[in-house]
Amino acid sequence: MKQLLIAFFMISGLSVHAFANDEALAITPQQTFDLVQTQPDQMLFVDVRDPIEIMFIGFTNVKYIDNGFQGSSAKEGEKAGMRIVNGWQNDGLPWSMKINPGKIYRSGQ
C-alpha cells in the first residue's frame, strides 16, 4: 500500500509539474512542420490526447503540437462539434490519409 501511495503522489507531482510547464512543452503546428523540414531524422510523432500522457511514453525532451493534429471542435454554428477550429489539419499544413509502409513499426520484424 505504501508503494501505491508513493507512486500516486509521484504521478500527481509530475502532473502538476507538466501542467505548470505546459507552455514550454507546446509548439504550434507550423513550428512542428518547420522542425520536420530541418531535422527529419530527429522527429518522432506520438499521438496523445492530453499533454500529460507524454510523461508515460518513455522519451525525454518532448513537445506536443498545440491544439493537436485535428484541432478543437467548433462550439457554435452549423459545424458545431466538428474539429475545424485549429490544429495541424486546419492550419493548411500537408497531410494525407495514405500511410507510408516504410514508416510503420511492426513488432517482430
Question: Would you summarize the structure shown here?
Answer:
The chain has three helices and two strands; from the N terminus they run ααβαβ.
Descriptive overview:
It contains three helices and two strands; from the N terminus they run H-H-E-H-E. Mean pLDDT is 74; it is low at 4-21. Helix 3 links the parallel strand 1 (26-27) and strand 2 (64-65). By secondary structure, it is mainly alpha-helical. It is globular. It has a two-stranded parallel ribbon with strand order 1-2. Helix content is 30%, strand content 4%. The longest helix is centred in the first third of the chain and has 19 residues, at 2-20.
Rg calc: 17 Å
Shape: globular
Let me know the number of strands: 2
Task: Spell out the helices and strands N to C.
Answer: HHEHE
Order of strands across the widest beta sheet?
Answer: 1-2
Structural class: mainly alpha
Main sheet attributes: strand count, strand direction, barrel closure: 2 strands, parallel
User: Mean pLDDT, rounded to whole units?
Assistant: 74
List the helices and strands and how they pair.
Blueprint: H1 2-20, H2 22-25, E1 26-27, H3 29-38, E2 64-65
Parallel strand pairs: 1-2
List keywords for this structure.
mainly alpha; 2 strands; two-stranded parallel sheet; 109 residues; single chain; 3 helices; 4% strand
